[in-house]
Design brief:
By secondary structure, the chain is α+β, with helices and mostly antiparallel strands.
Length: 229
């Protein structure tokens, strides 16, 4: 969750039914990522392993550059160098440093006693944006899917993908959202009304002080929708 002053808050997820709008956001010079406005605050996709750790306590850094879903570990190999952890009946593994290899039995046992995570994460697998069960992720590392971007990548038992980074991907994942402007997708179920002006209109939403513009051409479509629903 991103608070009004731009700082990270202490909420890390939201219900899809709480979604009001998605905007383009530039947290730093080279990045442009989705920004989710919801009735329980503002959110964005995790762009670092640290942000991912905050939201997913079952994941643990066993070695430099990885975060492991300890609940999905099925086999452990320990050696003088450290070790490896495997997932399910697959050959997928990631490394464990020597220090953490001594702690593995205890931290895996503790993780498996916690309730299963019922949340989904917005990601792209094989160029297909969708909501994927967080509980199915084996481990997370970092990748560079395009120039200047270095973001989390999710490894599942049969595939891998990365966090959603583009506005177009969000539209594919949430096809019911309405394109109010080239930089705003909105949830029509959350629209409370609008204030019209010479340039178009400003949309108001239920359960929120958030407002957003709508282009003149889209405004005609919006008024027709509101009149019939």
């Amino acid at each position: 969750m991103i608070t009004a002053n731009g700082q990270m808050g202490d909420r890390f997820s939201f219900f899809e039914s709480d979604l009001i709008a998605i905007e383009k956001w530039k947290p730093k010079a080279n990045y442009e990522i989705p920004f989710f406005i919801t009735t329980n605050g503002n959110h964005t996709t995790p762009t670092t392993l640290g942000e991912f750790t905050n939201g997913f306590p079952d994941f643990f850094s066993l070695d430099t550059g990885n975060l492991v879903n300890l609940k999905n570990v099925s086999k452990v190999e320990i050696g003088s160098y450290g070790g490896k952890v495997y997932f399910g009946e697959t050959d997928i593994y990631t490394s464990v440093n020597k220090l953490n290899s001594a702690l593995l039995p205890d931290i895996i046992q503790a993780a498996k006693k916690r309730p299963n995570d019922s949340r989904f994460i917005l990601g792209t697998i094989n160029s297909q944006p969708s909501l994927y069960p967080a509980r199915d992720i084996c481990f997370v590392d970092m990748c560079s899917p395009k120039r200047n971007y270095h973001v989390p990548r999710f490894h599942f038992k049969n595939s891998n993908g990365e966090v959603v980074l583009t506005f177009r991907d969000c539209k594919e994942a949430f096809p019911y959202l309405f394109p109010a402007t080239p930089s705003h997708f909105i949830n029509l179920n959350k629209v409370a009304g609008f204030n019209e002006n010479s340039f178009g209109a400003v949309i108001k939403f239920k359960e929120s002080d958030y407002t957003c513009p709508v282009s003149q051409s889209k405004f005609r479509m919006l008024k027709e929708y509101l009149a019939n629903n």
